[in-house]
Amino acid sequence: MSTHAIADTSALLGRSLRHITRSMDTIITTTVMPIAFLLLFVYIFGGAIATGSGTNYATYLLPGILLITVASGVAYTAFRLFQDLQGGIFERFQSMPIARSSVLWAHVLTSMVANLASLLIVTIVAFVMGFRPTAGPLAWLAIAGILALFTLTLTWIAVIPGLTAKTVDGASAFSYPLIFLPFISSAFVPTATMPGPVRWFAEHQPVTSIVNSLRSLMTGRGVGSDLWVALAWLVGALLVAYVAAMLIYRRRLS
């Protein structure tokens, strides 16, 4: 990305962030559901769930809740993109001497910042509820890196419906399967407790390897092969989503 494009992206990023600060309900809304899941599973179901992990249930549960937080948050990226397209903002910016890619990157970076705020809020609530990690500084850097990569990947996936949807509901509906995936993974209960076909799916879908990696890092345990599987899923999905989103974007503005 050229210096000119970086400057344009920074200016448009400031515009998007100002919109968010004027409408904090976006961040609040994306944190309400994950916090509700925390309360429900820790205080209602947690006493009946045996994880066999040697950690309290809030610590076991948090990695999956963080992924749900991001999946909820990126729906707003698709929503904001759809609104800008329908409002003619993209065409207006196209007529100005700014880099074409900067408009899209501003939305992506806004998603990263907004989701970071949501993740911090949910983590603070988890601490209040008994989340007690034993991770060291390097492990926390790895956790932050995985969550950032996960957010970036889901954001570029969100860009696709944001550019192609015909209605507002269609733009954000893509996030529902993403929110549902952690429920069929190791996020809430060990996969060993699931019946055969469900267990096979849970153990071979990307959320399980991501959750296992985050949980191992938070509790100071070895991540094993889960980390490499998680990174392979995330990097592969990111590359596919980025290429597809950029092709669609160029066609929309051509």
Question: Could you explain how this protein is built, in words?
Answer:
This protein has one domain. The protein is mostly helical and 254 residues long. It is built from eleven helices and no strands.
Largest sheet features: none
Share of residues in helices: over 70%
Total E-strand runs:
0
**Spans of at least 5 consecutive residues with low confidence:** none
Gyration radius over CA: 19 Å
Average residue pLDDT: 84
H/E order of the elements? HHHHHHHHHHH
Strand content: under 5%
Distance between the termini: 20 Å
Number of helices: 11
What characteristic shape results from the CA principal axes? globular
How many domains is the backbone divided into? 1
Write the layout of secondary structure elements.
Blueprint: H1 3-22, H2 25-45, H3 57-86, H4 89-94, H5 100-128, H6 137-164, H7 168-172, H8 175-180, H9 196-204, H10 206-218, H11 226-253
